[in-house]
Write a structure and sequence with these properties.
- The protein is an alpha+beta fold.
- Helices cover 21% and strands 32% of the residues.
- Strands 8-9-10-7-1-11 form a six-stranded mixed β-sheet. A six-stranded antiparallel β-sheet has the order 13-14-15-12-17-16. It has a five-stranded antiparallel β-sheet with strand order 3-4-5-2-6, with helices on one face.
- The longest helix is centred in the middle third of the chain and has 11 residues.
- It is globular, with a radius of gyration of 19 Å.
- The N and C termini lie far apart (53 Å).
Length: 306
C-alpha cells in the first residue's frame, strides 16, 4: 500500500477553449498571463466582474492545441455563456467538455514522481491520456489532472492510490487554501482577501483584464483589512457564515471545515491579529485559533498594528 491518495471532485467540470485566437481571447479576460500556458506549464486564474469581484476560478492546461479549463461544475453553463459574450470576432470555440474529461487530484508522498513530474508549481506533462500538473497554487497540494472521464479512476488506482476526499480537504484547509465553491461568494469576494495573489492567480505585469483596475487599486492602496486563514477548532465546528467573536467584537466569519471538525477556514479581520499575537476567537462555546500559513504575506498586518 502506497501513501498516494486521490479525489475525483464532482463539483469541478471541464470546458474546452479552442481556436487560433484562444490565447489572446482569454488574455483580455482573466487575471493570469495566458502566454505562460503550454504543454509544460499550467496556470491558475480567475474571471472577475468589472468591479473586481470574484466570479470563477480556473485551472488551465493545454492539450492538442486547445485549452482544457477546470472550473466550477454547477456554474459551467454560466461561464460558457459569459465567455461567449466576449467572443465577438475572435476565432475561438467554447464548449462543454465534461462528458469526455474530468478533473482529478492526486496527493501524498511521491505524487509528482508517480506522474513523471518534478519542478515548480504549474509544471505539467502528458499523463494517462490527459495532462497532469503540479498544483499551480501550492506544490504541497499535490497534483491536479485532467483525465479522460472513462478511464480516470482506473488510471489513478493503477498508481496504487486510494480514494480519500476527506483527506484532500483536510490538507487544503490545513494549508490555508480556499475551495472557491465553499469559501468564496461570487460577485462579492475579493481576490486579495483570499490569498489569490500569493497562490499565483494574478499576474501583475500583464495588460488589462476584466476587473484589473480595482484589483490593482486594492493592492497598491493597502485596502485589505481581512484575510482567509486556517483555524484550529475546539468544540463543534461552526456552520459557514457564523460570526466569530473576540470578546465583544465581531472579528471573523466561518467558512469551510474539515470532515472531523477540528480544522477550518475563517475570514479574520487583521485587527484581531494586531491586538494579540495568538488571538482566540469564539462562536458560542467553540474556540477557534487562527494560524498564518507560511506562504502568506501580510504587509497589511503592520498597518493594522500601527
Amino acid at each position: 500500500m502506497t501513501g498516494l491518495r486521490f479525489h475525483l471532485p464532482t463539483d469541478r467540470a471541464i470546458i474546452a477553449v479552442a481556436g487560433e485566437d484562444r490565447q489572446s481571447f482569454l488574455q483580455g479576460l482573466i487575471s493570469n498571463d495566458t502566454a505562460k500556458i503550454s504543454g509544460n506549464r499550467a496556470i491558475y486564474a480567475t474571471l472577475l466582474t468589472a468591479q473586481g469581484r470574484f466570479l470563477f476560478d480556473l485551472f488551465i492546461v493545454e492539450q492538442d492545441g486547445r485549452y482544457l479549463v477546470d472550473c466550477a461544475a454547477p456554474r459551467r453553463a454560466d461561464l460558457i455563456k459569459r465567455l461567449s459574450m466576449y467572443r465577438l470576432r475572435s476565432k475561438v470555440t467554447i464548449a462543454d467538455a465534461d462528458a469526455d474529461w474530468c478533473a482529478a487530484l492526486l496527493f501524498g508522498e511521491g505524487a509528482p514522481a508517480a506522474v513523471g513530474l518534478d519542478g515548480s508549481a504549474g509544471s505539467a506533462a502528458a499523463f494517462g491520456g490527459g495532462i497532469a500538473c503540479i498544483d499551480p497554487r501550492l506544490p504541497d497540494l499535490g497534483i491536479r489532472l485532467v483525465l479522460p472521464r472513462a478511464t480516470a479512476r482506473t488510471t489513478l488506482e493503477g498508481l496504487g492510490a486510494r480514494e480519500d476526499a476527506d483527506a484532500y480537504h483536510r490538507l487544503r484547509i490545513k494549508l490555508g487554501v480556499p475551495d472557491a465553491a465553499l469559501d468564496l461568494t461570487p460577485e462579492k469576494s475579493i481576490l486579495l482577501e483570499n490569498g489569490f495573489d500569493e497562490l499565483g492567480a494574478i499576474d501583475w505585469q500583464k495588460g488589462c483584464y476584466m476587473g484589473q483596475e480595482l484589483t490593482a487599486r486594492t493592492r497598491y492602496r493597502g485596502l485589505v483589512r481581512k484575510r482567509l486563514l486556517p483555524v484550529r477548532i475546539e468544540g463543534a465546528a461552526p456552520a459557514p457564515g457564523t460570526p466569530l467573536m473576540l470578546g465583544n467584537q465581531e472579528l471573523g466569519e466561518m467558512r469551510s471545515a474539515s470532515a472531523d471538525g477540528t480544522l477550518g477556514l475563517a475570514m479574520v479581520r487583521l485587527e484581531a491579529l494586531a491586538q494579540t499575537q495568538s488571538p482566540t476567537l469564539s462562536a458560542g462555546e467553540t474556540k477557534l485559533s487562527p494560524v498564518v500559513p507560511g506562504w502568506m504575506r501580510l504587509p497589511e498586518l503592520d498597518d493594522a498594528k500601527a
